Amino acid sequence: MFQFPGPFVFSASVENHAAIKEWLLPKITEKVRKDEGKTLNLRDKKFSEVVSSYGKNSQYLPELTDPSFLGQAIWCPMDQMFDENPSLRRPSRSQIGNAWFNYFEKSDWHGPHVHHFSSFSAIYLLHLEEKNPTVFCNQWALSSSQYDYHYTTEHLSEGSVIIFPSDLMHYVPPTNSHKRVTLSFNITSTYELG
Ligand SMILES: [Fe+2]
Questions:
Q1: Which domains does the chain have, with CATH numbers?
Q2: For a disulfide at 64, which of 6, 16, 99, 152, Cβ 3.0-4.6 Å?
Q3: Residue 163's pLDDT is what?
């Protein structure tokens, strides 16, 4: 029987997390406080209920494009992912397609979704006050065993970054804490032919 390489969820700790959080979290909190929901994305309650900067251009929070920050939060963990898993084909080039923050308050949630138009996606757990609620599910699993193919990430602590193929479905059930802040990234990768 032939089996295609499957979807995966990789996680690693971001070096220097404490300093990154100290640098970034006040800026995000200030954006949310000043905005008061006027321009930030409070998306359709059918799909999510969370304050997000999804869709803002990179000038809105230029820190998310800072090369040193991206090196620590994304590129080092991604290198680690390919180093530790030789069955994953290493791209010749990867770049950030877009980056945004998600600011969850108590009972906020994000329904099942995938990230379109990118290769890999990453979630950086910048501020957690509870076990991380993100759940991944394999939408290609046999329907009779779908329930067995959910992967919870409760064991991951603040300062972790999670990397996964962008078309892997995931969701965030209603949060129990008063504040949960994550950063999301879409990563576009290209591969050498041959
Ligand atoms: Fe997502």
A1: 10-190 (2.60.120.620)
A2: 99
A3: 98
